[in-house]
Amino acid sequence: MNRSPIFIDLTNLVSNPIQCGIHRVEREIVSHWPGTAELVPCRFDSAIGSFVEVPADRLQEIIDGISGDVDRRRTPLPPGKRPIATDDLVRGLFNPEVFYDQLRLNAYSNLCRAPHSGIRWMVYDFLPYLRPQDRSCRTTELLMPYLRVLREVPQVSFISAAARIAFIERVIRMPDRAGPVIPLGGDGLGMPKLKFDGGKRMFSFVGNTDPRQNVAAILLAFEKLWDDGVDAPLTILGANGDQAPVEASIVERLRGREPFNQMDKATDGFVRHILNESRATISVGSAEGFGIAAYESLHAGVPVIALKGIPSLDLISPGGRLTIDAATPDLIANAVRKLLDDRIAEGLWNDAAGLQIPTWKGFVKQLAKWLQGEIGTMKPGEHDGK
Predict the structure, then answer these.
(1) Is 376's pLDDT higher than 50?
(2) What residues contact residue 182 under an 8 Å CB cut-off, 6+ apart?
(3) What is the pLDDT averaged over residues 142-155?
(4) Is 332 contained in some domain?
(5) Assessment of whether the complete model's pTM goes beyond 0.70
(6) What's the number of domains the chain is made of?
């Protein structure tokens, strides 16, 4: 059956290709697209105030550049072709990005108001609005135009149940406007299931030292453990955040202590290396939009010390993690001590090995069903995990 093409808006990806979570989602969609409808990459051209197609070779160059750690941001985009017809956009424009460009938002607002509009967006989280204390002054005010246009979008999907609930209860208050939850994949690192090795004693944290990640509590927990003579090395894989002076001062104090190591670049290669060396990972962020680090750790079979309520972990069966109710140094230290017991650790490793974590291929397959209007084949929150 012939279907109208689906235009995927990749404006941010093609204009500023960097390694970030949303760009990763976009690359996986393009790479795994299985739909019977053609997926046509496009971008918003502010010079003409409309959407234009992105040449396939240019898009592949951008994707290869990000994957290979090659900086291609300085390569200018080719001039846009003629604008995509408005009727085509109304039938099949999909936006998986978060953006605050007023001209682009205006374009979406006009398309959403067209009769029988089929505009669809994917939503990741609402943390900038629900936790403004984590952002710089006036940031939330500047982000409001995005939220206003989101309220006009006819169909919206989500990556977590938490985001869907927030949309219904805090943004739209109309459940019929909230589409399905489509969980992200956990197999992006391409790792096989690792096996327990009692000789590994290192714990790791992947992410920047942002206050929302409660890295200060992690650092203080391990400082106390080391002062007590506990053999439990810690590796932080991520740079010090600009808004994290407390965390930076603790890191500086711990530099030079043999059990501590910090690596600034969290590339996929470094993450794979760290997981191979870890006894467990730590994910205790109090404001996680999804929690991909914990998800990928469990997919590789590595247990997690996790804070209760991480959205990604609520999407999968229990097991493979020690869950704590609050990110305090004492509770983190207690969890580390438990995992240093080989019997407990091996049990968690076995549990992690048995978990069924959704894959990127499964994510894109379900996304394609939703975008192609096959909503009767799935329910909100359903995923095939394959």
Answers:
(1) no
(2) 122, 157, 158, 159, 363, 366, 367, 370, 383
(3) 93
(4) yes
(5) yes
(6) 2
